Request: fold
Amino acid sequence: MEGLLGLLSGALPYLPALAVLLGGIWAAGRLRSAEVRARPDRSAAIWLASGLALFAAVTVSIAVASIVVMFSGNAPNYVIGVPFGIGIGALVGIAAILGYAILARPPFGRIALCGTLLGPALLIGATTAANTAAIGMGQARFDNEVAQHAAEVAARSSNLHLTVDGVEVDKAQSGTVVVAVRMRVRLSSDVTVRFDPTLKEPDPRFVLIPPEPNGSVLDTSEPPGGPATIAAGENHVYELGFRYPDELLNPTGGTYRPGAPGTWTLRVSFVDPVAGEYEVKVAVELP
Reply:
């Protein structure tokens, strides 16, 4: 189902153009029919469609070349935009002819010329709608994958247990700001977990999250000498120290600030090379 949704969201933006190309085959035959060849507005429709195609081609070529300049910083090279301009211009021209061919019937008279404008307008509208739908489907698929991953991590992490004691807090600014925290964290597991020894900063990672939205987190990694595995039913005690850098304690700007004493959240995370990602949280009081 996920693969089908991904395929559909990837193909959806191109369906309007495909419909125009297929319709253009029918429109070419319709223009050669005796009924349409006898119409006095046939030549005007062809010229109008050609003009729209040329305008679209030039506009798209310039736009693509300008975007390339914005991202590359090089001098404008309009040749880069020509293939895109030709493609879009051809689609606009075909859509214009298709619109005219559909309306080129006795009841419409010269109003059929409006089809040369209606065709490109419908192409643009359908393409916009298709892209919007594709983006929505892609976002839904991404959200589903994120939710599924989070559920898998939560289920896996239910085998871990955290206890915290020996909390010591250094404060500043008359006790309103946390400067440093020391604590003992006991990590126990119902299953065997492994820590990747090849990481530059060894697992597990410990993060203290303050309750304030603009409070800066405190983080640290495993102290030297930690175990490479914790066997099922066993535990390990980590002696941890957290401290804010001096530039954050004496800020001259920026949005985030040191957190205040209160109920913080300790998050412990790591990636088992065999089982996958783990993450467990526990509330910690910083008096």
Summary: The longest strand covers residues 160-172. Residues 115-157 form the longest helix (43 residues). The mean pLDDT is 87.
